[in-house]
Amino acid sequence: MQIGEVAEQIGLSLRTIRYYDEIGLAPPTARTPGGFRLYTDEDVARLLLVKRMKPLGYSLEEMRDLVELMDALASEEREDERAELLGRVELWEQAVAERVAALRQQLSYAEEFSSRVAGEKERRRARTAPRA
């Protein structure tokens, strides 16, 4: 699949996909003789993983760490190394759960703040409304 198809399918800009390739975060598996990027389903999955991490505030290095970990896990056949990789995935799982909890708390604060602002608006509206 060429870069334009990938961009349309997953909702990333061509520029972003090229940048992720340039920094080695999500390079395509192959290129045509003319130099056009060719992406496999695995490449698209890698880009989707990065896309999901970005709005959660993960750094490029953190993204790279998880992408490399998932790639290694997909290719590792030795049981001892696979167990070590799975242990690292569990650490990621715990860290993500902590981030989710923090985001839920932030959302709760935001909802409370929104309610207070709406309540204040209604109180002020009631005070300034003409009385019949």
UniProtKB/TrEMBL annotation:
SUPFAM superfamilies: Putative DNA-binding domain. Keywords: DNA-binding. InterPro entries: DNA-bd_dom_put_sf (IPR009061), MerR-type_HTH_dom (IPR000551), MerR_fam (IPR047057). GO terms for molecular function: DNA binding; DNA-binding transcription factor activity. It comes from the Bacteria. It holds the Pfam family MerR_1. Residues 113-132 are annotated as: Disordered. Residues 1-69 form the HTH merR-type domain. Gene3D superfamilies: 1.10.1660.10. This is MerR family transcriptional regulator. The lineage of its organism: Bacteria, Bacillati, Actinomycetota, Actinomycetes, Motilibacterales.
